[in-house]
Amino acid sequence: MVIEMEPVSKIPRGVFLFDDMPAEQLDALLGGLPPPERFRRGARLYSRRRFRRALGIVLSGTVRVFRDEGGGRRVVMNQLGPAGVFGAAALFGDEAE
Q1: Given CB 3.0 to 4.6 Å as the disulfide criterion, which of 25, 51, 63, 83 pairs with 96?
Q2: How many CB atoms lie within 10 A of CB 30?
Q3: CA 92 → CA 39, 53, 89, distances in Å?
Q4: In degrees rounded to 5, what are phi and psi of residue 60?
Q5: What is the pTM of this model?
Q6: How many helices (H) and strands (E) does the chain have?
Q7: Is the pLDDT of residue 65 over 80?
């Protein structure tokens, strides 16, 4: 995993969570966050073994959200591009499901 520092201003417009928030308030909210993480193509961000209570925002590229069906089968649930949000369920659940 490669950690890359980027200014908060790199968060793409259109993230629905921040639509009505003034820029100064957004900078104050996001200024204390850890630096963005960069993942290699095909990296698994969440799984039952790799579970984090965190919300992710796609800054660039795409993220495929899928469910393992067993036997090597995957069902694609969603595909997210810049400004896409993932991991919200992890914030409210007790454990990985």
Answers
A1: 51
A2: 15
A3: 24, 8, 6
A4: -155, 160
A5: 0.70
A6: 2, 6
A7: yes
